[in-house]
Structures are given as structure tokens and as C-alpha cells.
Write a structure and sequence with these properties.
Elements (H helix, E strand, L loop, with lengths): L2 E5 L4 E4 L15 E10 L2 E3 L6 E3 L3 E14 L3 H12 L4 E4 L7 E7 L5 E7 L4 E10 L12
């Protein structure tokens, strides 16, 4: 089951949408997974040629994605996760994809956000959207292949 895990001052949390029984677990997948990599450092454009030059201090490897169909009974965990990430905490992202990719140390990307939205008013289902980077000691592209 695709999940986000972290441990804050209150304790350990594994946030998922609880839909492992739907379509043999397909309901628990992250949606709209979009990886990115971005060099971080000052950049400029040469006046004569239009070429871009950059001194990169590091490269951020990250992804934006959404966890859908989270029941309202998990609102406390969603709010804790949001506060934890906004406060500078890290989370583990378990994609449960075909390669069993797990990203152990992820935080909010520079300028990124984590948001909660009401997805289904009748069933009281929510979604959470994340923009995270992998800050592991040897980071790699955040790939998810379902």
C-alpha cells in the first residue's frame, strides 16, 4: 500500500487511504506522480548568445503527487503530516510501485507545499498533494512506476 510515514513528538504515523482491498490494492496508489530534478544555485543568461549558465551547489531530486480518497477519520494524521512537513520534518514515501521504490528521507521542496482538499462531499473523502524532495545522503530521482 502506498503510504507516507513519519515520527513526530506525538508518535509514529503511517498515512494511507486504506484502500488496499480495492482492485487488488490499485486504489492505494499515488496519483499524478510527476518527478523533477532541479539544479540549485545562481543562474544567468549571456547577453550576446542567450545561453544560460548556472553555478549549481546541488541538484534537488523530487516529485509532486497526490494521495486520493483519504477518509475523514484520518484527518488528525493528515493535519499532523502537514504540520510536520511545514515545520521542516522529513517523511518516508513508500510508493508500492513495480520496483518497490521507497524514499526514506523526503522533505518539502523549496517553494513546495503540502495541501489538504475535500475530494468527495458525500463520502467525506479528502486528498493530500505533496511537493517533496529526496534529501537522502545519496539522493536519486524520485521515480514511481505503476
Amino acid at each position: 500500500m502506498a503510504s507516507i510515514s513519519f515520527t513526530d513528538d506525538v508518535g509514529s504515523v503511517t498515512l494511507d487511504n486504506g484502500t488496499t482491498a480495492v482492485s487488488d490494492g490499485l486504489g492505494s496508489r499515488f496519483a499524478d506522480w510527476t518527478p523533477f530534478q532541479k539544479p540549485i544555485g545562481p543562474a544567468t543568461t549571456a547577453l550576446g548568445t542567450g545561453m544560460r549558465y548556472q553555478f549549481a551547489f546541488r541538484t534537488d531530486y523530487g516529485a509532486s503527487f497526490t494521495m486520493n480518497e483519504i477518509p475523514n477519520t484520518k484527518m488528525d494524521d493528515m493535519l499532523r503530516c502537514q504540520a510536520w512537513l511545514l515545520g521542516g520534518g522529513t517523511v518516508e514515501v513508500d510508493t508500492e510501485d513495480s520496483n518497490n521504490n521507497v524514499y526514506d528521507t523526503c522533505c518539502l521542496a523549496p517553494g513546495g507545499d503540502v495541501s489538504i482538499a475535500l475530494q468527495d462531499k458525500a463520502l467525506l473523502l479528502y486528498s493530500m498533494t505533496f511537493v517533496l524532495i529526496n534529501v537522502d545522503a545519496s539522493p536519486s530521482a524520485m521515480i514511481c512506476e505503476y
